[in-house]
Amino acid sequence: MPHQESGEDAASDTKVEDEGLRASRELKLAADRHLLARKQQLLAVNQTLLERNKELMRLEKGYEERKKLAAVEESERVREGVVRKDADDDENASKMFQGSKAIKYVRSEFEWV
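Predicted structure:
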C-alpha cells in the first residue's frame, strides 16, 4: 500500500505540475495577446500621426507656394506702380515743359506791348 500511495502522490504531483504549466502557458499567451493588441494600437496611432504629418507638410508646402506667389504679385504691383508713377512723372514733366515753353512764347509775343 505504501507503494500505491507514492504512485498516487507522483500522479497527483504530475497533475499539479501539468496544471501549473498549463496555467503558466495561458498567462503567457494572455500577456502575448495583450502585447500584440497594444502593438497594433501603437501602429495605428503611428499611422495616423504619419498621415497627419504628411498632410501638414502638404499644407506647409502650399502655404510656402502661396507666400512666394503673393510676393511675386506684390513685386509686380510695386513695379507696375513705379512704372505708372514714372510714366505719370514723365507726362507731368512734359506738360510742365510745354507749359513753360508756352509761357515763354506768350511773354515773348507780348513783350512788345
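Summary: Residues 2-110 form the longest helix (109 residues).
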